[in-house]
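Quick one: structure tokens for this chain, please?
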Amino acid sequence: MQETTQGLTKVQPPRLVELFAKEVELESKRTAKYLERLPLDKFNWAPHQKSMNLGKLAGHITDIFYLLYTIVEKDAVDFATDKIPFVNPENPEVLIQNLKRNTKLFLDSFQKFDESKFQDSWKMSSGPHTIYELPRHEMIRLEISHILHHRGQLSLYLRMLDVPLPNVYGSTADER
């Protein structure tokens, strides 16, 4: 929406819903570039005994996109009782399908989201243990950061497996 004041055009800043939706859509596309390169024969590989294996890490990333949908649709999630459809990371194609489905669920739901609910408290728990309880907009930001954190780990896994890294924010050493 534009307003005119004394001959000057004032442009309204984008709404928070629009900013988050655009960011999630872009990061989903960037994540897909990584998933396309996953070597199926290395899905059980992990860089350390305390680390998630490659397939589980990739599946976890796609599942976080579903968690974003849950933050929009519900006031809380309890991992002890709520049925969350986590993916079984069988192959890259299943992961990409899960990513696309979860991103679409979030974006479709978010289009109808009432921005006045951004300040409402949102709780993540596992039984009696509270993991987070924050305003909804902070939870969305936290989970976007969570995706980026784990995608960074995935990038390192692929580098350690000598898989060329995709161009997501600019060229990589593999493209020079």
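The mean pLDDT is 93.
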